[in-house]
Amino acid sequence: MRNLLLNCFLSGCLILGGCGYTTNAFFLPAHIKTVYVETFQNKSDQPNLENDLRAKLIETVQNDGNLKIAPEDEADTVLRGELTGYTRQALRYLNDEAVQEYRITVTVNFNFFDRKNNTNIVKADGFSGDTSYYLSGSKAKSESAARSDALDDLAHRILNKVITLW
């Protein structure tokens, strides 16, 4: 009986211990601690989008804490890619057929390159981030503010894919 209670207790601890959420990069190889973020090649029709994306990626990496930003010649990895698209799609219309809400989507191809092993750890094509925004009302925002939100979403999605390798 005592062994049964002990086994139940230990099993419960193991099950409950596995239920916690963490952002630790358990799936990255142990030697990877730093990253250099290249400026993505801009193939979209939006000027300076590549600079805004690079700034968002660096900010997201710094806030996450799993990787550190490093100069290119000192980094364990390099994040590089190309911006392939920027779309603004009408989502909702008013009665007079004027657009009330838009969705902005920013699409990239990227790879996360391991300099030590000379291999791509993650490669993704057609990867995107998006946001929607209203033109009027209490939730209204400008296209430039929505663009920043879409880039923020994209940066978080890229980092999540990189550190979890999913």
Structural class: alpha/beta
End-to-end Cα distance = 43 Å
Q: Which strand-content bin applies to the residues? A: 25-35%
Question: Helix share of residues?
Answer: 25-40%
Radius of gyration equals 21 Å
- CATH topology, by name, is Double Stranded RNA Binding Domain
- Provide the number of structural domains: 1
Global outline: elongated
The CATH class is Alpha Beta
Say which CATH homologous superfamily is assigned.
Lipoprotein like domain
Order of helices and strands: HEEHEEEEH
Describe the main β-sheet briefly.
6 strands, mixed
Number of strands: 6
CATH architecture: 2-Layer Sandwich
Number of H/I helices: 3
Low-confidence region ranges: 16-25
Q: Would you tell me the overall average pLDDT?
A: 88
Main traits of this protein?
166 residues; single chain; 6 strands; alpha/beta; six-stranded mixed β-sheet
Tell me the layout of helices and strands.
Elements lengths: L1 H16 L16 E4 L3 E2 L6 H16 L3 E2 L7 E17 L5 E16 L4 E16 L8 H22 L2
Parallel strand pairs: 1-3, 1-4, 2-4
Antiparallel strand pairs: 4-5, 5-6
Helix pairs in contact: 2-3
Give a verbal description of the structure.
The protein has one domain (2-164): 2-Layer Sandwich (Double Stranded RNA Binding Domain). Residues 16-25 have low confidence and may be disordered. The longest helix has 22 residues, at 143-164. The protein contains three helices and six strands. Strands 1, 2, 3, 4, 5 and 6 form a six-stranded mixed sheet that branches. By secondary structure, it is α/β, with parallel strands linked by helices. 33% of the residues lie in helices and 34% in strands. The protein is elongated, with a radius of gyration of 21 Å. A hairpin with a 4-residue loop joins strand 5 (99-114) and strand 6. It starts with a helix and ends with a helix. Helix 2 crosses helix 3 (143-164).
